[in-house]
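It is worth pausing here to work through a concrete case rather than discussing structure prediction in the abstract. The textbook approach is simple: state the sequence, then state the predicted structure, then interpret. We follow exactly that order.
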Amino acid sequence: MGTRHRLALSYYLAAALPSLLTVFLIAPLTAAQPLPWQLCQTSAAGNYTEGSVYQANIRVLASSFPKKASASPGLFAKGAAGTAPDVVYALALCRGDTNASSCAACVAAAFRNAQKLCTFTRHATMFDDPCILRYSDQDFLANVTDNRGKIVAYNYNNVSQPEAEVLEAVSLRLVLATADVAAADQLRRFGTREEVFDDTYPKIYSLAQCTPDMTANECRSCLDDINLEMTPTYIAGHAGGRVFGVRCSFRFEMYPFFSTKLGPSPAPAPAEGSKHEISTALIVVIALIASAAPLAVIVAWYYIWRRRTRKQAGKTLVRKSTNSDNAHNIESFLLDLSTLKAATDDFAEHKRLGEGGFGVVYKGDLPTGQEIAVKRLSQTSRQGIEELKSELLLVAKLHHKNLVRLIGVCLEEHEKILVYEYMTNRSLDTILFDAEKSKGLDWGKRSKIINGIIRGLQYLHEDSQLKIVHRDLKASNILLDSEYNPKISDFGLAKIFGGDRSHIVTDRIAGTYGYMSPEYAMRGQYSIKSDVFSLGVLILEIVTGRTSHGPYDSEQEADLINFVWEHWTKERAAKLIDPSLRNHCPIDQLLKYIHIGLLCVQQKPSNRPLMSAVNVMLSSSTVRLPSLSRPAFCTQENSISEEILVEASSNEMSITELEPR
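Step two, the predicted structure:
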């Protein structure tokens, strides 16, 4: 790759091949090259030549676009010049905080740089401050959501632990909140925010922008996509970063990098006869502002003092959102620690509901009367911060009646707290494996629970915008409301499973023995079929009333899957059914559920059914169930703890190739 294709700015690390389809993140470059950064691609029609019609059409656009973009209220221009096969499509966008003259100069320079740095290539994209330019012989303007061809860069300065963990959560929340501001701006689809952080980094600054021809929903979706794809993997935890895209971009830094004074935008002229009314209103507004100034000073002083006091106490500073109705605004999920302490009687023992691998859960009551479940994650556990990050990433995207609803989060005073809707019947394991309580769990309730879990998994795997692998499906993560409707909870280990990959291999294996598929537990391979395996174990537990942790009687040392398979092959599966169900439900229906449970725990992932197929099997009385192969066995050793976590070496560095969508 030539020197001119090596892209970096100060501490940023990034590079681009001459292609719109590939972007690399590489190690820091010793000789940093300033903006512009370029992406160049040779067209299927080949390169153009000096003096060609294609070059003439580029120059037509180069002469008109600077004025067109700078004169536009949105600092935006798009259009085409020429006819096929030499037509050129182009788009230019200036940053929302620039002025008209700077915008015009940047767009003009972008055309010059494109022809110099992407010599004779028909596709060229230039990323600069304060503008972006793309031209191509393909009509990329037709699809406003096409954001392919992105450059990712981040600040390589070291951030100390645990500060990096807190910074990771706060910066993610900030860029998501900034996306809301940008999407709401009807004129420029541009927004900025800043937030007090700590003594090392007094403020965090964030910027987001989309092209103005996008709707608010399209803008928000575009920004969500790059935030959720890029931030957790490449940017989170760093002291700054950006994603350059033609249709949408974001950036955050620990220093001010944008102007608080936006460039001039045309305003509607006042109607005839309205000047007197406007003048009178202006006088009233000025008078009100003047009278309120002393109070504003006092409020501002108190706010600053409160922030500084929190910093001295080592608190993570977050503000509670005023827009609790906006499900996409991450700030709407922020709760004050004082509110949660009051709701739980300061995390009193009598409010304690239970304890899991990541922390303790308490029952709480908000001032509104709403009952909540407050999960207080361990302050020393790395698992806790990973869980919090996953919850924040997924909460804006996942909405289904069989998924538990996250009400809020709290990051104050080094706390990591997740607040869920309170489920009256708590978790499935507290009832199913209790000798007395399980008697009230009749077949109607059990079948409702199984079917609800399947619907929730089908949404995660097949129906949601993001394909999600839960990775920790188990009885204790199935919560039950007052009507025994199940809701899948705990997305701390969940992973977005993008692209067409059949599976992912990880060095960080985390889950619960008894529910983990063998390919995941032994080789670190996970896919949606890993969740199918866990579902199979759950179905067998619900039908038999037996835990997957075995052994189950004084003469049987096998785990649940072995135990059920042995009875199935000997045609004695009816004896496995929970005694409280045997006289109150058709045996053939229960055997059908056992059959499906065994289908889900087969050794080969390819033999396990998809959730949509399981739904069809359960809802139809005519579908013939597939034959069974010998299931996988994951026998738990007594010397191994139930919760496992294997971390990869922290000093490893990888080179990652991004395939834009």
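Step three, interpretation. Residues 1-32, 262-329, 551-556, 634-661 have pLDDT under 50 and may be disordered. The CA atoms of residues 92 and 133 lie 4 Å apart.
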